[in-house]
Amino acid sequence: MICHVIDHLGLQASDVEAAAAAYLRLLAPLGVHEAMRFPGPVVGMAGPDGIPHFWLSPGGPSTHEAHVAFTAPDRAAVDAVHAAALGAGLEILHAPREFPEYHPGYYGVFVRDLDGNNVEAVFHGAPGA
């Protein structure tokens, strides 16, 4: 049984429209799309299940970096997130590779978003698959 502890996560962005556009482009390979929008603007994004688990809302620059990881269905999707980040001109913190120090088969890419947060796409699969 998989235990999902977090129902949804929200980050503040200095420019919600720009951040939403960047996230939608970056996470399109994972099936992420805009699901809801409220005045402010506040943008809710969903994956294939259609439920907005990730939110962006207005806020000033943060004094600390947040880390958020998104589940990828396979290694190809992690690589596609990397390509989308490069295409969007985002900073690559760690190019796609296996991170055996986390666990065998942990394959991820780490990217810096427009507000300085550490964003990851990760596939938990068999080592070297």
Characterise the protein shown here.
There is one protein chain. This protein starts with 8 loop residues before the first strand and ends in a 5-residue tail after the last strand. The chain is α/β, with parallel strands linked by helices. The longest helix has 13 residues, at 75-87. Helix content is 19%, strand content 39%.
The run of helices and strands is EHEEEEHEEE
Q: Main β-sheet, in a few words? A: 4 strands, mixed
Shape: globular
Note the total helix count. Answer: 2
* pLDDT < 50 runs, ≥5 residues: none
Overall number of strands: 8
What is the CATH homology-level superfamily?
2,3-Dihydroxybiphenyl 1,2-Dioxygenase, domain 1
Strand residue percentage: 35-45%
Which range best describes the helical content: under 10%, 10-25%, 25-40%, 40-55%, 55-70% or over 70%?
10-25%
Structural class: alpha/beta
The rounded distance between the terminal residues' Cα atoms is 23 Å
**CATH level-two architecture:** Roll
Task: Report the CATH topology name.
Answer: 2,3-Dihydroxybiphenyl 1,2-Dioxygenase, domain 1
CATH class: Alpha Beta
Read across the widest sheet, the strand sequence of neighbours is 1-4-3-2
| Radius of gyration using CA atoms only | 14 Å
Mean pLDDT: 92
Total number of distinct structural domains:
1
